Every structure is written in C-alpha cells, then in structure tokens.
Amino acid sequence: MTSPLLWSLIAIQIAMGAFDTFYHHEMTERLAWRPSQRHELQLHGVRNMLYAALFLVLGWLEVHGLLAVAITVVLAAEIVITLMDFVEEDISRKLPASERINHTLLALNYGAILVLLVPVLIEWAGQPTAVTPAFHGVWSVLAAASAVGVGLFGLRDLAASRRLARLNGRTVTGLVAGLSGRQTILVTGATGFVGSRLVAALTDSGHQVIALVRNPAKVDALHAPITLLTSLDQLPDDAKIDAIVNLAGEPIGNGLWTDTKRRKIIDSRIGMTGDVVRLITRLQQRPSVLVSGSAIGWYGLWQDQPLTESAKAHACFSHELCAAWEQEAGRASDYGVRVVYLRTGLVVGTEGGLLTRMLTPFEFGLGGPMGSGKQWMSWIERDDLVRLIGHALAKPGISGPINATAPIPVTNRKFTEELGRRLRRPAIFRIPATLLHHAAGDFADELLLGGQRVIPNKALSSGFVFRHETLRSAFEAIL
Q: Where are the domains of the chain?
C-alpha cells in the first residue's frame, strides 16, 4: 500500500482527529469529567482502540486473505460506532459549531480514504491468507506514533467512563430539606452550573419551580417537572410566587475582561435583577424573600485579613460589579420583600466553574500554583451552596449579605496541592504572575492572582452546617 494520496488522506485524518481530541474533548468540552458523557466516552474509547490497531496494521504489514476481510470488517465497525457517537452526542450535549464542522470534515475524509483503501483490501482478500512485513518510510513512523497516541487516549476514555459511572451517583435528595411545605419558587439562571442543581433539588423535594430560561437549547439539563419561561413578562400579575432565587448573569470567568465583556457582565446582572424587581412591584401577592446572586468579589482584593459580612471593600471592577448588583436587588426591600445577597466564592464541582478548567492540565501532570500561590481561595462545594440557598430561603432572620463560602479557605498553593494529591499527580508547574498579568490583565489580577480570605459568619451563626468544611472532604466527594 504505497499510494501517496492515500497516506496523505490518512495523515489529514490523524491531524483532524488530534485537533478534535485535544481542543474539543479535552480543553473546551472536558468530556472526561462530565457524567452525562459517560456513554460517549465509551464509544470514543472503543473507536480509538480500533484506530490504533488499523494504524499498526496498515503502517507495517500487508494482510492477505481472511485477515484482509477482518480489516474491512473493522473499517465498517468504525462507521457504525461513529454513527452511534453522532446520535449519542445529539442526545447528551449541544456540540459547538467548530466541533460539528470538524466532524463533517472527518466523515468526508474517511469516505475518501475508503474509496482508495477498499479496492486494495479486496485485492488482498483474494490472495491466500498471510501476513507480510511492509515499510513505507515516514508514513510507517507516523502510523506507529498515531497508534500509540490514539491507543493511550482510548484507554483514558474507557477509564474516564468508569470513573464517571461512580461520580454520577450523587443524589439531590435532601439538599433543601429545611424548606418546608410545597412552595412556588422562581429561579433565574436556572440552566447554569448552580441553577440546574438547585432546580433539581427543589423539584425532588416537591416544590413547584418556575425556571427562566434564556437559551431553550439548555432546557434538557433541567430536572422536571418545571414551568418554563423565556421572559418574566409571561407571568401574570396574579401569579403566586413564594420566593425568588436570582442567579442569572453573563459568566465572569470564561474570557478576558475587554470593554465589551465588562458591559455584558454588568448589563446581564443589573438588567435581569431590575426585571426581577419590576416583576415584584406588579405582583398582587409578592414573594416573601429574594435570594440574589453576588460574589466575594464585593470585598475587593485583600491579603490575609479574614473577611466577614461586616468587612469593608476595596475598589476594583469586581467590587463595582457586585455593589451595583446588590444595590439593584436591594430595591425589592422597599416592597416588603426580604432580600439576601449571596456572596459566593469559588464553587467547586466537576460540571462547571474554575475547577473544570484545572482538571485537564492537572490530570496530565501539568498543574501547579498561580503566581506566588499565597493568594487566598475562598471556596464552597456546589451541593453545600445549594443547601445554603435553601437555608437562606427558609430562615426569616437572614437578610442582607451572606458569605457563601466554606469555613476553611485555603491558599492557592494548598488548593493545587490538594487537587494534585486527589488526582495522584504532581502539582509543580507554577504559572508566573507576570505571564498571567500580561496575558489577562485585570481578569488575572482579580480572579487568579488576587483573593479574599472569607469567613461565613452569618451562615454559621444561623445554624447552617456545612457537609464539606475542608477542601479534602469536598474533593473526595466530587472527584
């Protein structure tokens, strides 16, 4: 098999497959840590192992007779697995445009490979069964290297699928057990990392949830039964709503803080919160409580000083954003509504937030502290955050700011050490502060290199008990 055109097409297939694996599966979609993608990873693992065998055979051997027929069967199996993968992806996740385009090109290129390769296999199949060594120069070397690569990733995908089967068993039962009766609760940001888990916990406990959904494509992520809205204007004035949880807003940590990004971050939070307050003003029966999102960024950048809800703030973009957000939500108190500002820290979970961006480099042994590693990271495990929201809804004595962080914050160095220990990987690759600053500006200075040592005094004094007070406990639960 010496056709340069065929080998060129195989090389293109290898390059596009590598791009799909590294960029989509590992970097952006992070499939290895998403429980919903367990079956997709199984398909990827089996397909990669078949590819590894094909590359080794085609690169180093000529197989005749029944062995050529076996290779043809493997090629057909690749097609079947790929079709199954397409169906699984459509069911379990929304593919980004770049991944859909890449998959289309992979399918077209695979078809061209088959047009050139199948006639060769048919010719080989007509000969007596035998195996003959073959060497095609650089193409054989490429085939061997590719076989090793896809084989390793095949084993990784199969292992990740087994891991996800264990992670998928975490139940939402009892997360909002303190919220008595059957209440009607409006949730904005319902399809987000925290909102979707909150909706699942509320519906599991028998509460009626009204979910505001901006992107209908994400509705499948929500736990039924729920009432869906695309605008608060769809609610009539006589709607009965007992409580509102306002979590909506443009993600703050998924891109550089350009002027355009800053406007989106601010406008999405202030605009949505303003819509919530306007809804409250026109409802004939107003909700008793509004739990509105905020963040520990309200405090600005500090060193080692412990920060409770009574602490003052240092000026920076994060503070300006959170202060304006809280001020807008505070207008609801003029209408007799109890308002709680949820000053959330780093939410720890495998399906969203900063941790998901850290898992892949750490799993490949490339993780480490950011800058000096001395900056504080005030964190909270996602289910504890959902429980705290339920606690704030249920406790009439809680109002104003409440720190949504675990009682024991850690430094960035300790955070990375714990993550490395849990994944059984080293955490020695420090990212220089100057590199982060020059690459990401204020985004890096405030979210990655700055920090706050936040203590949840109000949560603790009101009787809330954290399931995960230590980072080790949280990592053992979610990883």
A: 4-167, 184-478
pLDDT tens-digit readout, 79-99: 999 999 999 998 888 899 999
Terminal CA-CA length for the chain? 47
Measured distance CA(309)–CA(399) in Å, rounded: 11
42-45, long-range: CB < 8 A, 24+ apart: 42/157, 42/158, 42/161, 43/81, 43/84, 43/85, 43/88, 44/85, 44/153, 44/154, 44/157, 45/154, 45/155, 45/156, 45/157, 45/158, 45/161
Instruction: Give the DSSP letter of residue 23.
Output: I
Question: What dihedral angle (degrees, nearest 10) is formed by the CA atoms of 50, 52, 55, 59?
Answer: -130
If residue 339 lies in a helix (H) or strand (E), which one and from where to where? strand 338-344
CATH superfamily of 184-478: NAD(P)-binding Rossmann-like Domain (3.40.50.720)
Answer for the pair 301, 408: CB distance below 8 angstroms, yes or no.
Answer: no
Q: Which residue has the higher pLDDT, 218 or 255?
A: 255
Neighbours of 209 (CB within 10 A): 24
Q: Which residues touch 354 (CB under 8 Å, ≥6 apart)?
A: 253, 346, 447
3-class DSSP state for residue 54?
helix
User: 384, 381, 364, 357: which is closest to 443 by C-alpha?
Assistant: 357
CA separation for the pair 232, 325 (Å, rounded): 18
Query: Which phi and psi (to 5°) does residue 99 adopt?
Result: -70, -40
Question: Each residue of 268-309: pLDDT tens digit?
Answer: 999 999 999 999 999 999 999 999 999 999 999 998 999 999
Percentage above 70 pLDDT, the chain = 98
- Tally the residues of the chain: 479
